[in-house]
Design a protein that fits this description.
The complex is a heterodimer.
Chain A: H1 8-28, H2 32-56, H3 62-92
Chain B: H1 3-24, H2 28-48, H3 52-77, H4 88-116, H5 134-143, H6 146-167, H7 184-189
Helix pairs in contact in B: 1-2, 2-3
The chains are: A mainly alpha, B mainly alpha.
Chain lengths: ~100, ~210
């Protein structure tokens, strides 16, 4: 058995597992907060891929820099998303994403 | 089984278990703690991948800010944030469908790895000493990626202002449909209130 963690394939597998769990959770769950957490899991999985491939091609560190930007965008997304969840809760007294149907005609 | 393999396995199990806890938890507080476990596991992965700076940033930003923000919102919403009245049958159908989707995705990923990269590829090369350190990442960040860095600061400012604007309580509701400022004199001298009854409004607008 080859030792783990010396090949990029291990990280690709783990990242795709995390991404699919997050994506399926986003689709299956109906709690808006859980859905936001699943988005964070998916962003983390892509970040792991960026860093792993930067480890494979270490001429520059632009992958890590890109992961840094993804973290910044994820922080902004969490802040705005949670503010929207608060506004939604104030409007409908619910965090169930099926209740967000005011724009439906 | 080397130390590196054990490190990788521990972090992988932590990540996967945290993600599963997040997806399956009925109580969102448990979901937030599962997210925390995932984040800590990924920070361990970053350490394994010689990205010390990113591991620190991951712990500070995600575990220190994002998860705490989630927990704050959960505390604010209280009992209303938990799922009620999910029927057993629909949850079984969801679990089955979700497991099927994950299985399909994983099979696709494994096939893609086998097709596009034979096992001889993808071995990590040896590194120079300062790969991933704070100074080298910072040097790259402030030379090649300077403009996106400054733009990300603008993004964070906009996000903070937007979050404040969206999450403010809607107590100061204005009547919609009728213009609030009725005349130029009222605009300059302010609205006429009951306390102004004895005092005539001066003709000269005072700014």
């Amino acid at each position: 058995m080859t030792p783990l963690s010396y090949y990029v394939q291990d990280y690709v597998l783990l990242a795709s597992l995390l991404f699919s769990i997050g994506g399926v959770g986003f689709l299956v769950r109906r709690n808006v907060l859980i859905q936001l957490m699943c988005v964070e899991i998916m962003l983390n999985a892509t970040n792991l891929l960026l860093v792993a491939f930067n480890r494979l091609y270490p001429a520059s560190m632009i992958g890590q820099v890109f992961a840094f930007f993804v973290i910044a965008v994820a922080a902004a997304e969490a802040a705005v998303g949670l503010a929207i969840v608060l506004g939604f809760f104030r409007l409908r007294k619910s965090v169930h994403s099926d209740d967000a149907d005011i724009l439906r005609h | 089984m080397t130390i590196g393999s054990i490190h990788f396995l521990l972090c992988a199990v932590a990540c996967t278990a945290g993600a599963l806890i997040t997806v399956f938890s009925r109580n969102p507080i448990r979901g937030a703690l599962g997210l925390l476990l995932t984040i800590v596991g990924i920070a361990g992965m970053y350490l394994k991948l010689h990205a010390q700076f990113l591991a620190a940033i991951q712990l500070i930003v995600y575990a220190g800010a994002v998860v705490v923000l989630f927990v704050f919102v959960l505390m604010l919403l209280g009992q209303d944030a938990t799922d009620q009245n999910t029927s057993r049958r629909s949850s079984v159908a969801r679990i089955a469908g979700g497991t099927g989707l994950v299985a399909v995705f994983m099979i696709a990923a494994i096939r893609a790895i086998h097709v596009y990269s034979p096992a001889s590829h993808g071995r990590f090369p040896s590194l120079r000493e300062d790969f991933g350190s704070v100074s080298s990442v910072g040097a790259q960040l402030f030379s090649d990626a300077l403009v996106p860095f400054e733009l990300s600061t603008a993004l964070l400012i906009v996000a903070v202002i937007g979050a404040i604007a969206v999450a403010r309580s809607g107590r100061s509701k204005r009547p919609i449909g009728r213009a609030r400022v009725s005349s130029a004199h009222e605009y300059f001298a302010g609205p006429i209130r009951p306390r102004d009854a004895g005092h005539p409004i001066s003709k000269e607008p005072t700014l």
